[in-house]
Amino acid sequence: VCQTVEDATVTLSGNHNLTDGNYDILYNLSAPNLATGIPAVINVVGGIPSFKIPTALIPKSGKTTITITNITNTTTGCTNTSTANKEFTINPAPDISNLAMAIKDVCQGQPATVKLTGLGTLTSIAITYNISGFNTVALQTIPLTVVAGEVNFPIIITDISNVGLTTFTITEITNVLTGCSKPTLINKNFNVNPIPLTPVVNDQNFCTLDNPTVSNLQPQGNQYKW
Question: pTM, whole model, 2 decimals?
Fold first, then answer.
């Protein structure tokens, strides 16, 4: 299971001799998540008993062992002891406490590059994002490979075809290797700048005696570089 996100579902299999119905149990949890004498109700449906370990009891990542110590038939009141146990893993939520994002302004018709840093030991992630402002894209999810805590990826040209201030927002990051996600809200503004219009020019003729220079050429102005 993923840390702080979901309950752990315990399912009993094999020849457990439990008929359909409800049973009260007591169970213990081992380090790093310690708990003793926790009550729960096993609901047996179709011969398959199951119950859940609440997220609040397994806040720490790592391997934890559950041991059922007692079981009571709620109909008859008969009780028995048990040593049934199973080890399971609580996978940590992605550590993105140092996450930072950078996007440089681009010219219209060019892709923008998103740079993420502070991804720690993550190596394979998926990000969920949207784009808003003068360019809009609904929620998208893409896979990324992280190297030394950093990753760069492009925003395709067709997603930022309009000139103007645009916002790129990441709403969730998932560790692909464990399937554990962490909601986040980090965004960055960048500008899509317009391409200057092509000047209209005509061939020009000069006399040698006029000593023509580049400044005599048309068009003229600070926006042109000869």
Answer: 0.75
